[in-house]
Amino acid sequence: MAINKDSNGYTFGFAIALVVVVGAILAGVAMATKPFQEKNEAVKKKMDILKAILPKNEAEKVTRKNATAMFDEMVKLEDAVVLDINGKVKEDITGDAILDIDIKKEYRDKTLKDKDKSFPLFISTDADGKKSYVIPVVGKGLWGPVWGNICLDDDMRTIKGATFDHKTETPGLGAEIKQAFFIDRWIGEQITDDSGNPITFEIVKDNSGSEPVKVDGITGGTITSKGVEEMVNRGLKPYIEYFKTLK
Fold first, then answer.
1. 242: left (phi > 0), else alpha (psi -120 to 50), else beta?
2. How many independent structural domains does the chain possess?
3. Is 48 domain-assigned?
């Protein structure tokens, strides 16, 4: 029996078969490239942590090619810890598993309760034995997620470095949170008062950012700037509780 290629049935059948074939090919490609994507994500995470720790002139030298070697030298995963929302150490998560924690995924997961979320803390020790503490944070900008790393000095109070990034913020406006001029505004700020209580940061647009606990925002990027403000204030809390146990 000849097939009527002009019939609606043939058209629909051909379309369905094409969708199935293309879908199978795309699924196969996705599965084949997933290990490479995960490796790239791990390298990018290491780069961001290193750039938060290092002085600006040294951070510029971090690349995808040297990030893993530099990370392994500067940040020992056996020194890292994972905290719960109250700043208590999760003893069951150690080593490479700490680097695998996806705080952006946990933040987006509305079914995951706060008490079940994980808060990784990376620790770097320099040649003089001085420690740096890197705190990953995640929040929401105008159009999508924003995230970053806050690096504290040996006193566990003073911000010595940071990185911020985004997925879909507006170029020239909210997207500027990743630029050095905005990051530099956080350097030297302290996350607690003299009694160890959390300090609430305020991102302002009246050029009063030179005052304590105030940071000048991005011109034209108010909502994204406020997203960073909320992200930092919320994200630091578990770590502040943990640092109290170390002093």
1. alpha
2. 1
3. no
Residue 18 lies in a domain: no
Q: For residue 84, which amino acid is it?
A: D
DSSP for 16-62, written as a single string: HHHHHHHHHHHHHHHHHHHHHHHHHHHHHHHHHHHHHHS-HHHHTT-
Question: Does residue 46 lie within any of the structural domains?
Answer: no
> How far is Cα 161 from Cα 55, in angstroms, rounded to an integer?
8
> Among 52, 76, 48, 83, which Cα is nearest to 64's?
48
pLDDT digits (tens, 9 = 90+) for 189-242: 999 999 999 999 999 988 888 888 899 999 999 999 999 999 999 999 999 999
- C-alpha–C-alpha distance, residues 72 and 67, integer Å: 9
> Which pLDDT tens digit goes with each residue over 93-113?
999 999 999 999 999 999 999
pTM (predicted TM-score): 0.85
